[in-house]
Specification:
Layout: E1 7-8, H1 21-30, H2 36-56, E2 62-64, H3 72-79, H4 96-104, E3 125-127, E4 134-136, E5 139-140, H5 152-162, E6 167-172, H6 174-179, E7 182-183, H7 194-211, E8 215-219, H8 229-243, E9 249-253, H9 263-268, E10 273-277, H10 285-291, E11 297-303, H11 313-327, E12 332-336, H12 355-358, H13 364-380, H14 386-401, H15 408-415, H16 428-439, H17 456-466, H18 472-493, H19 510-513, E13 517-520, E14 527-530, E15 533-535, E16 539-545, H20 552-559, E17 568-571, H21 573-578, E18 581-582, H22 588-609, E19 613-617, H23 632-647, E20 655-660, H24 669-674, E21 679-682, H25 693-698, E22 703-706, H26 719-732, H27 751-777
Parallel strand pairs: 1-12, 2-6, 5-7, 6-8, 8-9, 9-10, 10-11, 11-12, 16-18, 17-19, 19-20, 20-21, 21-22
Antiparallel strand pairs: 3-4, 13-16, 14-15
Helix pairs in contact: 1-2, 5-7, 7-8, 11-13, 17-18, 22-23, 26-27
Length: 778
Amino acid sequence: MANQKLAVSTLGFPRIGRRRELKFALESYWAGKSSQAELLDVAAAIRKANWVDQLDRGVTNIPSNDFSLYDHVLDTAVMVGAVPDAYGWTGGEVSLDTYFAMARGSADGGACGCGGHGSATALEMTKWFDTNYHYMVPEFGKDQEFKLASRKPIDEFLEAKELGIHTRPVLVGPATFLKLGKIRDGGGDPIDLLPRLVPVYAELLRGLKAAGADWVQIDEPILVTDLNEAEREAIAAAYRQLATASVPKIMLATYFAALGDNLDLVASLPIAGLHVDLVRAPEQLDAVAATVRKNLVLSLGVIDGRNIWRADLDVILDRVAALRADRGADGIEIAPSCSLIHVPLDLAAEPELDTEIVSWLSFAIQKIEELDTLAIALVDGRAKVDDALKAARAIRRGRAKSLKVNDASVQTRIESLDASMSKRESRFADRRSAQDRKLDLPQFPTTTIGSFPQTPEVRRARAAHGRGELSLSDYETLLRQETEAAIRWQEEIGLDVLVHGEFERNDMVQYFGERLSGFAFTKNAWVQSYGSRYVRPPIIFGDVARPEQMTVGWWQFAQSLTDKPVKGMLTGPVTILNWSFVRDDLARSQVCRQIALAIRDEVIDLERAGAAMIQIDEAALREGLPLRQSEWRAYLDWAVECFRLTAAGVADGTQIHTHMCYSEFNDIIEAIAAMDADVISIETSRSKMELLDAFRDYSYPAGIGPGVYDIHSPRVPEIGEMTALIDLAKRRLDAGQLWINPDCGLKTRKWDEVRPALVNMVAAARQLRARKDASRAA
């Protein structure tokens, strides 16, 4: 008798709840409006719903420990006792208070929302490989000792077991965990700590086996990146050490790229299963199959875990049919390419989305259904699921021919591009002189990144307008009032360069996408960015153009209220691309060029309207980098070209700013310089200005605004704290280059946090100016 299908795995599942229950529970807890028990009850309910959703849809290997209250890397740090001294942990179980202090920072009296910890900044935060998910960067001491300080993976395995659901626990692998961390005070390479860490993993794995786990998934995406021989040897030794313990079978999960030159290492490891990403790297299948031993279970990541388009099921079946025949149904399993935390949960929550576009899409639930179809076909033949395969083919044919997708005028404009369109009129030194004369700013000019807090009143008004309960006129009246109040307040505290506050904008990408052709938007398709911060990425389904002006009117209104310069605020093409779900039927570089031309039109119109400063944010430039350095140049070439294409149409006296989020800049500093912006603002406060070393070593010529306080934490920094950071910046850069600004936009903060922080920031800049004036007088 034939099996009904082969094994289906999911690797990880969206953990925010169908209605963002986790977000609201977290924020209620942080605000002191609910108890720890109430928060944990919500978390348990989400886990149960996730397990049942997957069980009901036939998933064979259901993950546990893929849930997190904030971040799975932070969970791992807590699990192994990697809690820096600043958080006051003295051993034993790490409390939820300490956990959130590491995530969000704390202040005397408990600004983390969870009780007093003294004052401590949050851990540094950066992007998880090349995704838009943020993780908390683990910190280690030079003599770091690890211990099992949390039984979360065991507890959640047992929690599912009590519900009658047998799961496969998921762990961040020890090598990936260390490689993503840092040793404080330049203490060496974290991978050197691997021999100290592995015994803790062995202890945990023994506990999982005792609890009844027969398999465990260990995620080691670091294995698709560039590793040196010492790192490979350390990883091999670590897994040999784990194999000597009595542990469950290990499914080693790799994703986001091909194993490449690490394939021989992986093939040598004493593991029982291997997951590979066949969406990002379909070309690796033959090499993997030929290299790994025949008794190793291969998990094939055939459905895109990072994008939302329906798969070409015929292509997938053609690709893996031979391997299924060679290894048998028990020798392979099929899965998404990576965890599904990067996609929304269920298309059923989008009844208002255009039905034709809906037919092209697949969210987490639909991806499981696609896997189910494939699993049946690979055992019982395609005829068994013929109707599903015919429907998938028809959908793909319809999408390719759709008039919604194709715009001949956009395609013609792309074909007419030439190199001169991406070059400024003059070199930076000449532009700087023109801008200095035009703007006449003081040394250490102060500004913000763009957005101000979106108050509950603004959010309620936006929602009411969206429901048709508030007229456009009344809605815009409120927005003008908020904008004017923000301008007046900025003048009052003495900021040098103002912003209009972006009260009319729901999101820095969505706002623009809603005004461009070729984009679609959802109501409930949330994905986690970090902690309780969720986003609804736009869907780029067709050719992109700008039908009309998008920001000029709001900029003109704000500038009419003040004599100080107000920045025009735009999101750059690479960030719009990287923070969207991008069509998979056209090269990303071509999609980006289409967006760049649309933003270029807006830049030119802002300048014509009188804007002397225009900020084009490229917060996500670095996160689009391929994971292999050998592939960087091709990406950076077109990404930089697209930014320059947006900015190069203005005169020398118009100052172009850009902003970049958490990034290691050393290895792409030449590309950043090639962007040819006049001022760049970057997030550096959590790294204590270490990120500026790249700009110093390169002799970066343009203006730089290193963030002087962390906006992702509710802490209000003192003046001395900010002046100390600026002094660190001055050791690395010429004082004439420095701008004073927060790390990032202030949209997600509260006014009672923003006001004192910015007052202190302006005071810090004035202290620096006074200090310089005093030194001159002396």
